[in-house]
């Protein structure tokens, strides 16, 4: 079987050209002569997963993402989904025999528990469309069903129309409430989505404005968020590219936690909102628990136990579905201040998206290496280079044991070892944070700490 898989840069530009016309065609190419295949990852405890057709790698997708659309020959083939383990070996997740047909797209959606997943094949005839789109919908939330309502953007729930009921792993075609006899499909434009429990009218999810701009087939997937905010619903729109439009609940809550990085200083941190007044009494080097709050803008203030350091009324913005960590530290002028970063929304099971924070003001930048048992600093696969003071950066690590080594490189080939940890297990399904910070009790004057 022969394949024509587009690379990502080519895919994005090709998708824009294709989708801006009539469902991805032009006057010179008004039909879809080949078979088409795409993969969507809707398994909430999954790893980054690759799609293979026979022996060809057609791309990968993390949770809530999709591979590119690949053009392939029609016929029988073996579809396999694989992940890469901590030893960089491919591990089979699921495999099945498939039959691909000319003129049709097969969207394979992985849902459910990653250890025993469900693979849904959504197969449909691609169509030429003008100023219209086709809508399919499915729930990827196990043991839960929803009633799907939609309305024109800006309309309240009372003016929404029930489209269908959504069950786990069952794809339905949504019928447009305002279709006419000449065209049964949806008008392109802006809409809003509401979800309720079956047979009820209390809204449990409301989308922001959803843009259906392309003349193509959309597949709407209802899923739960992963990471820290695991109970929030999101709605994904899958089309013929790697770009997934994901919409959070406009009324979803948010979370935050605070890390007191100060040496030998307990600190009171206050976060106040319209109906919120949370106080955290954090001892030196303590990472607090997550607080669940409404989305919105908050005032954050802090005062050390000796009253020598403080700040007041800083702004902390928490949008719908956000989870943030706030780090309290001393800046270059020895003033108390904060930096904040968003926690990853990806599953923290096989891979760990963590934030690395540099609180060492003595150097312009620091290199941080995550060194496995068979590696050295020179051969380490995972590293963060030239991280500036009071900056943070994300890195993704597989579940494994790592020594964390912090170095300063003076750009003349001279490296100063600031700190080296023992081998640490990074294998829990939690949100990790790595902090490089001053420590008078350390022989080097610094330390590296792994927090969660």
UniProtKB/TrEMBL annotation:
One of the Pfam families matching this protein, by short name: DUF4397
PROSITE patterns (UniProt xref): PROKAR_LIPOPROTEIN
Keywords: Signal
Source domain of life: Bacteria
Stretch forming the signal peptide: 1-18
Keyword Ribosomal protein included in the entry's annotation: no
Every DUF4397 domain range: 35-119
Name recorded for this polypeptide: DUF4397 domain-containing protein
Organism: Bowmanella pacifica
